[in-house]
Amino acid sequence: MMAQIHISNLALELDFDYIVRRFFSILPGALSWTTLIGLTVLSFVVPYWIAIFIIVYDVYILIRAIYISVHLVYAYYRQHRMRHIDWIDRCQKITSNLDDYLKQTQQDLNHHSDRVTKQLFNELLLTKHSNVAILPWDQIHHVIILPTYNESLDVLRHSLTSLAATHFPSARLHVVVGFEARAGQAAQQRAAVLTAQFRHQFGSFITTFHPDNLPGEKRVKSANATWAIQAMEEVLQTKNIPVDYVLVSNFDSDTVVGHSYFAYLTYKFITHPDRYRVSYQPLPMYHNNVWDAPSFSRVIATGSTFWQMIESTRPERLVTFSSHSMTLRALREVGYWQTDIISEDSRIFWQCLLHYNGHYRTEPLYTSVSMDAALADSWWQTLINQYKQKRRWAWGIENFPYLMTGFFRNLNIPLHTKLTYTFRTLEGHYSWATTPIIIAGLGWLPIFFGGPQFHSTVLSYSLPYVTRTIMTIAMFGLLVSTTLSLLLLPSRPAHVSRWKYLPMTLQWALFPLIATILSAFPALDAETRLMLGRDLSFNVMQKTRKY
Question: Is 180 left (phi over 0), alpha (psi -120 to 50) or beta?
Fold first, then answer.
């Protein structure tokens, strides 16, 4: 009898989990499609009220554009200021004598104060008053994982060379290049070449070969990364490196780090009052091949960078994305990256948030890591690749049912935390899939299909002018984006003409069209797949560079 009750309770529990997952898998797509179809139908039925809605919505977009532009400029300012800081020097000073450093900084602020220096000073004060010890910077080690499938030797060499050139002691950098066993002999040859070239340039350098078709796994980056970090842990154990002094950076294989990345990351880690409940997120730039990429690829890549810059100024909203870092302790405690999901970059944050009962966050790093923009051998293939890449990013919506199921199960997470992350996640993906479509197309439907009765109203004549005026003002945001995109550009390669700056500037005029076709549509595609229970395969984007 007890066994029957246990089996019955287990069945009810499994049914509950399934119902919750399916409901929240359907919800994002249902909301987006209801909005788009509803606005279309109602434009025929009640065009007057839809016209009023469009005007109100345009005003909202205007306010949001101004708000976002302010945050974007501030993020650029912070990155520019951080670029000139000697983080190694700061690590040495605060480790040797924190009180003296704080005293000297306070004197400097009395004579000349700027917002960034003051914020760094206040963060150190918070750590001091929290009675959290500053860790010795010279005992911090970094593990860098580069999972790869079919990347060329040139791409991998570029990434590894940037690691070797960083302003951080190479003896405390431990690199693992994770190949896929299914890549065959070509992967073995690339591993041999890289080992011969880089094995003496780091504290540890290994290559791993992730077996194919392991139970419970899919062909995804997270499975490769989990296999790689566990292999590197064995190396760290032989060197008696404590887990609490290790940071893990899970990078895309084309990631090129800036010189100060690990020094800056070390500083943030050793001074953070809650260092083991934090992931660290740099600003992703897609600069490795940006001068050769087509305009639509550059706009999408730069737009993604801008969004991460904006989110960095609102750390309470920030979720790990693409290349990022976290502590080895937290990674082990949550069971590493799940090996059957595509969006492992954001999933690991949600794993930590649920595991630590809502007590986890992402700390922004105002330094960049550079990766490749979509660029294939032909314009058409690049367009297809860009769509697939954006759809893969939008597939982060797969985390929503996972998160909501976890919220229902974990009663120790504060209700405010649950409501906040639920709204932000849902609203973010909803806006991603609907806003560009509403602005670019649906907002004009009352004009075309409103009928004679609507066309005889003042609102019918006013709607185009009001909308055009509001959107013209909102173009201020595009001017900010254009300016910052030029300021953030890397140096022009010798093979690129100076005239290339012209299309680099004019490309932003295409933003509404590009945002609809290569951002909103892929997001809607991802939500629809999740709603219908259709999985998404991990696609490896072709990356081409011209040297």
Answer: beta
